[in-house]
């Protein structure tokens, strides 16, 4: 099984996304977190794309990304509206992003509407 991970930053007309793919081994988390803290190119993050499997395999990873996004939101004076991680699966339905398969990418808005 491939345990590699990657960060993909892409920008389109509407928003910027951080996409995370792959399952992350616990041994790799420290490498990922140090890389994550070095991302300075992200000016505004409006959506965090991830697989629900990450909540089971690497909750620390998801928490780290959410913390980064919270910091970015505060810098912009925006309101951070992500639910607590342990309630994330239940809360996803409120965002209208529940899919049939738990391995399909989920898009979660993190900023309140302006």
From TrEMBL:
Domain of life: Bacteria
Name of the protein: STAS domain-containing protein
Organism: Peredibacter starrii
